[in-house]
Amino acid sequence: MTALWLVDGMNVIGSRPDGWWRDRRGAQGRLARELAGWAQRDGARVEVIFDGAPHAISGAGGVGVAFASRRGRNAADDDIAARVEAADEPGAIRVVTSDRELAARVRAAGGDVVGPSELRARMDAG
User: Fold this and answer.
1) What is the DSSP letter of 69?
2) What is the C-alpha to C-alpha distance for residues 72 and 4, in angstroms, rounded to an integer?
3) What is the CA radius of gyration of the chain?
4) InterPro entries, from UniProt (predicted)?
5) Which one, of 8, 3, 80, lies nearest residue 39 by Cα?
Protein backbone atom coordinates (compact mmCIF):
# COMPACT_ATOMS: atom_id res chain seq x y z
CA MET A 1 0.00 0.00 0.00
CA THR A 2 1.29 3.45 -0.93
CA ALA A 3 1.85 5.66 2.09
CA LEU A 4 -0.65 8.42 2.75
CA TRP A 5 0.99 11.78 3.39
CA LEU A 6 -1.24 13.64 5.85
CA VAL A 7 -0.08 17.26 5.99
CA ASP A 8 -0.56 19.64 8.92
CA GLY A 9 -1.18 22.53 6.53
CA MET A 10 -0.71 25.58 8.73
CA ASN A 11 2.35 24.03 10.35
CA VAL A 12 4.01 23.54 6.95
CA ILE A 13 2.98 27.01 5.78
CA GLY A 14 4.39 28.51 8.99
CA SER A 15 7.74 26.80 8.41
CA ARG A 16 8.65 29.48 5.85
CA PRO A 17 8.42 33.10 7.01
CA ASP A 18 7.44 34.38 3.56
CA GLY A 19 4.66 36.75 4.64
CA TRP A 20 1.96 34.05 4.49
CA TRP A 21 0.15 35.71 7.41
CA ARG A 22 -0.84 38.64 5.18
CA ASP A 23 -2.90 36.28 2.99
CA ARG A 24 -3.70 33.09 4.86
CA ARG A 25 -6.16 31.81 2.25
CA GLY A 26 -3.69 32.51 -0.54
CA ALA A 27 -0.98 30.61 1.35
CA GLN A 28 -3.32 27.65 1.81
CA GLY A 29 -4.07 27.61 -1.90
CA ARG A 30 -0.38 27.81 -2.82
CA LEU A 31 0.52 24.91 -0.55
CA ALA A 32 -2.36 22.77 -1.85
CA ARG A 33 -1.28 23.42 -5.46
CA GLU A 34 2.37 22.67 -4.64
CA LEU A 35 1.28 19.42 -3.01
CA ALA A 36 -0.84 18.57 -6.06
CA GLY A 37 2.12 19.08 -8.39
CA TRP A 38 4.34 16.89 -6.23
CA ALA A 39 1.66 14.21 -5.85
CA GLN A 40 1.16 14.05 -9.59
CA ARG A 41 4.91 13.88 -10.33
CA ASP A 42 5.75 11.28 -7.69
CA GLY A 43 2.49 9.36 -7.48
CA ALA A 44 2.12 10.31 -3.80
CA ARG A 45 -1.20 10.05 -1.97
CA VAL A 46 -1.62 13.37 -0.18
CA GLU A 47 -4.20 15.00 2.04
CA VAL A 48 -3.80 18.36 3.75
CA ILE A 49 -5.78 19.61 6.74
CA PHE A 50 -5.91 23.32 7.50
CA ASP A 51 -7.07 25.24 10.53
CA GLY A 52 -9.55 28.03 9.89
CA ALA A 53 -12.78 28.59 8.06
CA PRO A 54 -13.37 26.35 5.04
CA HIS A 55 -13.12 27.93 1.60
CA ALA A 56 -12.71 26.77 -1.97
CA ILE A 57 -9.19 25.99 -3.12
CA SER A 58 -8.72 25.60 -6.87
CA GLY A 59 -5.98 23.75 -8.70
CA ALA A 60 -5.36 21.11 -6.04
CA GLY A 61 -6.65 18.19 -8.07
CA GLY A 62 -5.51 14.86 -6.74
CA VAL A 63 -4.93 16.19 -3.21
CA GLY A 64 -7.53 15.85 -0.50
CA VAL A 65 -8.11 19.25 1.09
CA ALA A 66 -9.94 19.48 4.41
CA PHE A 67 -10.44 22.01 7.16
CA ALA A 68 -10.48 21.25 10.86
CA SER A 69 -13.82 19.99 12.10
CA ARG A 70 -13.90 22.61 14.82
CA ARG A 71 -12.31 25.92 15.66
CA GLY A 72 -9.76 26.57 18.34
CA ARG A 73 -6.40 25.46 19.57
CA ASN A 74 -5.07 22.21 18.10
CA ALA A 75 -8.19 21.73 15.97
CA ALA A 76 -6.41 20.37 12.90
CA ASP A 77 -3.94 18.49 15.12
CA ASP A 78 -6.80 16.68 16.82
CA ASP A 79 -8.33 15.72 13.46
CA ILE A 80 -4.97 14.46 12.18
CA ALA A 81 -4.30 12.41 15.31
CA ALA A 82 -7.81 10.95 15.17
CA ARG A 83 -7.28 9.88 11.54
CA VAL A 84 -4.09 8.02 12.46
CA GLU A 85 -5.66 6.47 15.56
CA ALA A 86 -8.64 5.21 13.53
CA ALA A 87 -6.60 3.89 10.60
CA ASP A 88 -6.52 0.17 9.84
CA GLU A 89 -2.84 0.58 8.90
CA PRO A 90 -1.46 3.54 10.85
CA GLY A 91 2.08 2.62 9.78
CA ALA A 92 1.09 3.55 6.21
CA ILE A 93 0.47 7.17 7.23
CA ARG A 94 3.20 9.81 7.22
CA VAL A 95 2.16 12.93 9.06
CA VAL A 96 4.03 16.08 8.09
CA THR A 97 4.42 18.40 11.08
CA SER A 98 6.99 19.96 13.36
CA ASP A 99 4.52 20.11 16.23
CA ARG A 100 6.05 17.96 18.98
CA GLU A 101 2.77 17.14 20.70
CA LEU A 102 1.10 16.05 17.47
CA ALA A 103 4.19 14.06 16.48
CA ALA A 104 4.11 12.20 19.81
CA ARG A 105 0.41 11.38 19.38
CA VAL A 106 0.97 10.12 15.84
CA ARG A 107 3.91 7.94 16.82
CA ALA A 108 1.98 6.54 19.80
CA ALA A 109 -0.78 5.50 17.38
CA GLY A 110 1.74 3.79 15.08
CA GLY A 111 2.09 6.46 12.40
CA ASP A 112 5.27 7.98 10.98
CA VAL A 113 6.25 11.65 11.26
CA VAL A 114 8.36 13.75 8.92
CA GLY A 115 9.17 17.43 9.22
CA PRO A 116 8.16 20.21 6.87
CA SER A 117 11.74 20.58 5.60
CA GLU A 118 11.76 16.97 4.34
CA LEU A 119 8.43 17.51 2.60
CA ARG A 120 9.62 20.78 1.05
CA ALA A 121 12.81 19.09 -0.17
CA ARG A 122 10.74 16.37 -1.85
CA MET A 123 8.43 18.93 -3.45
CA ASP A 124 11.35 21.11 -4.61
CA ALA A 125 13.26 18.15 -6.07
CA GLY A 126 10.95 17.88 -9.08
Assistant:
1) S
2) 26
3) 13
4) YacP-like (IPR010298)
5) 3
